[in-house]
Specification:
Order of helices and strands: HHEEEEEHHHEHHEEEEEEHEHEHEHH
Structural class: alpha+beta
Largest sheet: 5 strands, antiparallel
Number of helices: 12
Distance between the termini: 55 Å
Length: 294
Protein backbone atom coordinates (compact mmCIF):
# COMPACT_ATOMS: atom_id res chain seq x y z
CA UNK A 1 0.00 0.00 0.00
CA UNK A 2 1.29 3.44 -0.91
CA UNK A 3 0.23 6.88 0.36
CA UNK A 4 -2.14 7.52 -2.56
CA UNK A 5 -3.95 4.23 -1.95
CA UNK A 6 -4.08 4.84 1.80
CA UNK A 7 -5.73 8.23 1.36
CA UNK A 8 -8.58 6.52 -0.49
CA UNK A 9 -9.55 4.64 2.67
CA UNK A 10 -12.63 6.10 4.29
CA UNK A 11 -11.77 7.57 7.70
CA UNK A 12 -15.20 6.60 9.00
CA UNK A 13 -14.47 2.98 8.09
CA UNK A 14 -11.03 3.11 9.68
CA UNK A 15 -12.52 4.43 12.92
CA UNK A 16 -15.24 1.79 12.79
CA UNK A 17 -12.56 -0.88 12.45
CA UNK A 18 -10.97 0.54 15.59
CA UNK A 19 -14.29 0.20 17.42
CA UNK A 20 -14.95 3.94 17.37
CA UNK A 21 -18.51 4.95 16.50
CA UNK A 22 -19.93 8.42 15.73
CA UNK A 23 -22.01 10.11 18.41
CA UNK A 24 -23.99 12.10 15.87
CA UNK A 25 -24.17 12.53 12.11
CA UNK A 26 -25.14 15.80 10.44
CA UNK A 27 -25.19 15.45 6.68
CA UNK A 28 -21.65 14.51 5.62
CA UNK A 29 -20.18 15.38 9.03
CA UNK A 30 -19.59 12.53 11.50
CA UNK A 31 -18.94 13.68 15.08
CA UNK A 32 -16.97 11.52 17.53
CA UNK A 33 -15.56 11.79 20.99
CA UNK A 34 -11.92 12.36 20.12
CA UNK A 35 -9.81 9.19 19.72
CA UNK A 36 -6.76 11.34 20.53
CA UNK A 37 -7.80 12.38 24.04
CA UNK A 38 -10.56 11.92 26.59
CA UNK A 39 -13.70 14.00 26.30
CA UNK A 40 -17.42 13.69 26.99
CA UNK A 41 -18.73 16.12 24.36
CA UNK A 42 -17.88 15.10 20.77
CA UNK A 43 -15.62 17.67 19.11
CA UNK A 44 -13.83 15.42 16.63
CA UNK A 45 -15.36 15.82 13.16
CA UNK A 46 -14.89 13.72 10.03
CA UNK A 47 -16.25 15.04 6.77
CA UNK A 48 -17.07 11.83 4.95
CA UNK A 49 -17.32 13.46 1.54
CA UNK A 50 -13.91 15.19 1.70
CA UNK A 51 -12.49 12.30 3.77
CA UNK A 52 -10.70 14.60 6.24
CA UNK A 53 -10.84 15.01 10.02
CA UNK A 54 -10.47 17.85 12.48
CA UNK A 55 -10.19 17.77 16.26
CA UNK A 56 -11.67 21.06 17.44
CA UNK A 57 -10.35 20.59 20.96
CA UNK A 58 -6.77 20.25 19.75
CA UNK A 59 -6.94 22.47 16.66
CA UNK A 60 -5.44 19.61 14.67
CA UNK A 61 -6.62 17.76 11.57
CA UNK A 62 -5.64 16.18 8.29
CA UNK A 63 -6.00 13.02 6.23
CA UNK A 64 -6.12 9.39 7.31
CA UNK A 65 -2.33 9.05 7.51
CA UNK A 66 -2.15 12.05 9.84
CA UNK A 67 -4.83 10.41 11.98
CA UNK A 68 -3.10 7.02 12.16
CA UNK A 69 0.16 8.70 13.13
CA UNK A 70 -1.56 10.76 15.83
CA UNK A 71 -3.60 7.86 17.25
CA UNK A 72 -0.69 5.42 17.41
CA UNK A 73 2.07 7.94 18.11
CA UNK A 74 3.97 7.09 14.95
CA UNK A 75 6.72 9.28 13.57
CA UNK A 76 6.72 8.52 9.86
CA UNK A 77 4.25 7.98 7.03
CA UNK A 78 5.89 4.63 6.34
CA UNK A 79 4.97 3.47 9.83
CA UNK A 80 1.37 4.62 9.28
CA UNK A 81 1.22 2.74 5.96
CA UNK A 82 2.47 -0.37 7.69
CA UNK A 83 -0.19 0.00 10.36
CA UNK A 84 -2.95 0.31 7.76
CA UNK A 85 -1.60 -2.55 5.66
CA UNK A 86 -1.87 -4.87 8.63
CA UNK A 87 -5.57 -4.19 9.06
CA UNK A 88 -8.58 -5.78 7.37
CA UNK A 89 -9.13 -3.94 4.07
CA UNK A 90 -11.39 -0.93 4.48
CA UNK A 91 -14.00 0.37 2.11
CA UNK A 92 -12.56 2.79 -0.41
CA UNK A 93 -14.64 5.38 -2.28
CA UNK A 94 -14.34 3.46 -5.54
CA UNK A 95 -15.71 0.39 -3.76
CA UNK A 96 -18.73 2.16 -2.25
CA UNK A 97 -21.39 0.43 -4.24
CA UNK A 98 -24.08 2.16 -6.22
CA UNK A 99 -27.41 0.38 -6.06
CA UNK A 100 -27.84 1.02 -9.77
CA UNK A 101 -24.53 -0.69 -10.57
CA UNK A 102 -25.32 -3.70 -8.44
CA UNK A 103 -28.78 -3.90 -9.90
CA UNK A 104 -27.32 -4.49 -13.34
CA UNK A 105 -24.47 -6.75 -12.26
CA UNK A 106 -25.50 -8.95 -9.33
CA UNK A 107 -28.78 -7.38 -8.24
CA UNK A 108 -30.30 -6.30 -4.93
CA UNK A 109 -32.41 -8.81 -3.06
CA UNK A 110 -34.91 -7.03 -0.83
CA UNK A 111 -35.30 -9.24 2.22
CA UNK A 112 -38.06 -7.41 4.07
CA UNK A 113 -39.69 -4.02 4.47
CA UNK A 114 -40.96 -3.00 7.88
CA UNK A 115 -42.27 0.13 9.60
CA UNK A 116 -39.54 2.40 10.94
CA UNK A 117 -38.29 0.75 14.12
CA UNK A 118 -34.60 -0.18 13.73
CA UNK A 119 -32.86 1.71 16.53
CA UNK A 120 -29.81 2.55 14.38
CA UNK A 121 -32.01 4.00 11.64
CA UNK A 122 -34.09 5.92 14.18
CA UNK A 123 -30.87 7.51 15.46
CA UNK A 124 -29.89 8.31 11.88
CA UNK A 125 -33.24 10.02 11.31
CA UNK A 126 -32.74 12.01 14.50
CA UNK A 127 -29.21 12.96 13.42
CA UNK A 128 -30.77 14.65 10.40
CA UNK A 129 -33.13 16.45 12.79
CA UNK A 130 -36.20 14.92 11.22
CA UNK A 131 -39.25 14.38 13.40
CA UNK A 132 -39.33 10.61 13.87
CA UNK A 133 -43.13 10.39 13.85
CA UNK A 134 -43.14 12.19 10.51
CA UNK A 135 -40.53 9.79 9.13
CA UNK A 136 -42.60 6.85 10.37
CA UNK A 137 -45.52 8.08 8.29
CA UNK A 138 -43.62 8.29 5.00
CA UNK A 139 -40.65 5.92 5.33
CA UNK A 140 -39.85 2.28 6.03
CA UNK A 141 -36.93 0.16 7.17
CA UNK A 142 -35.64 -1.72 4.12
CA UNK A 143 -33.48 -4.81 4.63
CA UNK A 144 -31.67 -6.12 1.55
CA UNK A 145 -28.71 -8.14 0.35
CA UNK A 146 -26.02 -7.33 -2.20
CA UNK A 147 -23.46 -9.96 -3.18
CA UNK A 148 -24.41 -12.09 -0.22
CA UNK A 149 -23.98 -9.29 2.32
CA UNK A 150 -26.93 -7.88 4.25
CA UNK A 151 -27.66 -4.18 4.71
CA UNK A 152 -30.47 -1.97 5.96
CA UNK A 153 -31.48 1.60 5.19
CA UNK A 154 -34.24 4.12 5.56
CA UNK A 155 -36.48 3.58 2.55
CA UNK A 156 -38.79 6.01 0.76
CA UNK A 157 -41.13 4.51 -1.81
CA UNK A 158 -41.61 6.03 -5.24
CA UNK A 159 -44.66 5.86 -7.50
CA UNK A 160 -43.12 3.07 -9.59
CA UNK A 161 -42.72 0.72 -6.63
CA UNK A 162 -38.99 1.26 -6.13
CA UNK A 163 -37.31 2.72 -3.06
CA UNK A 164 -34.85 5.48 -2.34
CA UNK A 165 -32.41 4.19 0.29
CA UNK A 166 -30.28 6.12 2.74
CA UNK A 167 -28.14 5.31 5.76
CA UNK A 168 -25.09 7.07 7.28
CA UNK A 169 -22.65 5.50 4.83
CA UNK A 170 -24.30 5.66 1.43
CA UNK A 171 -27.45 6.44 -0.50
CA UNK A 172 -28.95 4.80 -3.54
CA UNK A 173 -32.11 3.21 -4.85
CA UNK A 174 -33.89 -0.02 -5.62
CA UNK A 175 -35.26 -0.01 -9.16
CA UNK A 176 -37.51 1.01 -10.72
CA UNK A 177 -36.44 4.63 -10.28
CA UNK A 178 -39.17 7.25 -10.18
CA UNK A 179 -40.67 10.25 -8.45
CA UNK A 180 -42.94 10.19 -5.43
CA UNK A 181 -46.14 12.21 -5.52
CA UNK A 182 -48.56 13.25 -2.81
CA UNK A 183 -51.89 13.78 -4.49
CA UNK A 184 -54.70 15.56 -2.67
CA UNK A 185 -56.39 17.24 -5.66
CA UNK A 186 -55.05 20.69 -4.70
CA UNK A 187 -54.12 23.55 -7.02
CA UNK A 188 -50.71 24.09 -5.36
CA UNK A 189 -47.73 21.75 -5.71
CA UNK A 190 -44.52 21.68 -3.66
CA UNK A 191 -41.45 20.26 -5.43
CA UNK A 192 -38.56 18.69 -3.49
CA UNK A 193 -35.32 17.22 -4.76
CA UNK A 194 -35.07 14.38 -2.24
CA UNK A 195 -37.09 12.82 0.54
CA UNK A 196 -34.90 14.27 3.32
CA UNK A 197 -35.83 17.73 2.02
CA UNK A 198 -39.51 16.77 1.99
CA UNK A 199 -39.29 15.51 5.58
CA UNK A 200 -37.30 18.61 6.55
CA UNK A 201 -40.10 20.85 5.29
CA UNK A 202 -42.66 18.96 7.34
CA UNK A 203 -40.38 19.11 10.40
CA UNK A 204 -39.80 22.86 9.98
CA UNK A 205 -43.52 23.42 9.63
CA UNK A 206 -44.26 21.08 12.56
CA UNK A 207 -46.82 19.16 10.51
CA UNK A 208 -47.08 15.54 9.47
CA UNK A 209 -49.52 15.87 6.59
CA UNK A 210 -49.42 18.34 3.73
CA UNK A 211 -52.46 20.38 2.80
CA UNK A 212 -51.10 20.62 -0.74
CA UNK A 213 -49.91 18.31 -3.49
CA UNK A 214 -46.20 17.53 -3.66
CA UNK A 215 -43.64 15.94 -5.95
CA UNK A 216 -40.43 14.47 -4.53
CA UNK A 217 -38.16 14.05 -7.55
CA UNK A 218 -35.70 11.63 -5.91
CA UNK A 219 -33.05 13.33 -8.13
CA UNK A 220 -33.43 16.25 -10.52
CA UNK A 221 -32.65 13.76 -13.28
CA UNK A 222 -36.25 12.60 -12.80
CA UNK A 223 -37.76 16.03 -13.46
CA UNK A 224 -39.14 15.02 -16.85
CA UNK A 225 -41.11 12.23 -15.17
CA UNK A 226 -42.94 14.75 -13.01
CA UNK A 227 -43.39 17.66 -15.41
CA UNK A 228 -46.98 16.86 -16.40
CA UNK A 229 -48.13 16.40 -12.79
CA UNK A 230 -46.33 19.53 -11.56
CA UNK A 231 -47.45 21.71 -14.47
CA UNK A 232 -51.10 20.79 -13.89
CA UNK A 233 -51.10 23.01 -10.77
CA UNK A 234 -51.89 26.71 -10.62
CA UNK A 235 -49.00 27.47 -8.21
CA UNK A 236 -45.67 25.69 -7.80
CA UNK A 237 -43.20 26.15 -4.93
CA UNK A 238 -39.74 24.61 -5.43
CA UNK A 239 -37.37 23.47 -2.67
CA UNK A 240 -34.43 22.23 -4.73
CA UNK A 241 -30.69 22.14 -4.00
CA UNK A 242 -28.59 25.29 -4.17
CA UNK A 243 -26.45 24.06 -7.05
CA UNK A 244 -26.39 24.39 -10.82
CA UNK A 245 -28.59 21.35 -11.36
CA UNK A 246 -31.18 22.72 -8.97
CA UNK A 247 -31.17 26.13 -10.63
CA UNK A 248 -31.53 24.57 -14.09
CA UNK A 249 -34.48 22.50 -12.88
CA UNK A 250 -36.21 25.63 -11.56
CA UNK A 251 -35.72 27.37 -14.90
CA UNK A 252 -37.11 24.36 -16.74
CA UNK A 253 -40.18 24.38 -14.51
CA UNK A 254 -40.65 28.10 -15.09
CA UNK A 255 -40.70 27.47 -18.82
CA UNK A 256 -43.68 25.10 -18.57
CA UNK A 257 -45.53 26.04 -15.37
CA UNK A 258 -47.88 28.94 -14.85
CA UNK A 259 -46.50 30.30 -11.58
CA UNK A 260 -43.25 29.07 -9.99
CA UNK A 261 -41.81 30.40 -6.72
CA UNK A 262 -38.20 29.39 -5.98
CA UNK A 263 -37.94 28.96 -2.21
CA UNK A 264 -34.19 28.17 -2.15
CA UNK A 265 -33.44 31.82 -1.29
CA UNK A 266 -34.58 31.10 2.26
CA UNK A 267 -31.78 28.53 2.73
CA UNK A 268 -29.31 30.14 0.32
CA UNK A 269 -26.28 29.57 2.58
CA UNK A 270 -26.89 25.81 2.65
CA UNK A 271 -26.74 23.19 -0.07
CA UNK A 272 -30.26 21.97 0.60
CA UNK A 273 -33.21 22.19 2.95
CA UNK A 274 -32.02 19.36 5.19
CA UNK A 275 -28.62 20.97 5.71
CA UNK A 276 -30.47 24.16 6.63
CA UNK A 277 -32.50 22.21 9.19
CA UNK A 278 -29.41 20.51 10.60
CA UNK A 279 -27.54 23.77 11.09
CA UNK A 280 -30.25 26.21 12.05
CA UNK A 281 -32.76 26.53 14.83
CA UNK A 282 -36.39 26.21 13.68
CA UNK A 283 -37.67 29.36 12.02
CA UNK A 284 -39.61 31.83 14.18
CA UNK A 285 -43.31 31.66 13.44
CA UNK A 286 -43.33 35.03 11.67
CA UNK A 287 -40.50 33.95 9.38
CA UNK A 288 -42.17 30.60 8.75
CA UNK A 289 -45.24 32.37 7.48
CA UNK A 290 -43.14 34.74 5.37
CA UNK A 291 -40.66 32.25 3.92
CA UNK A 292 -42.13 28.78 4.14
CA UNK A 293 -45.58 30.22 3.84
CA UNK A 294 -47.51 27.28 2.50
Amino acid sequence: MNAVQAKQIKITDFLGGEGIRPIKILGDDFWYCSPLRQEKTPSFKVNDRANVWYDHGMGQGGNILDLVMAMHRLETVSQALGKLAGKTPYRRPAESFSFQQHKTSSGIAVLKITPVSNSALVEYIKSRRIDVKTAEQYCSDVYYAVNGKNYFSVGFKNDCGGYELSNPYFKGSVSPKGITTIRQDKDTCLVFEGFWDFLSFLTLKNIRELQHDAAVLNSVANLSKGIDFIASHHKVFTYLDNDEAGKRAVQELKSVCKNVSDQSEFYAKHKDLNEYLCNKEPLPEKQVRKGFRL
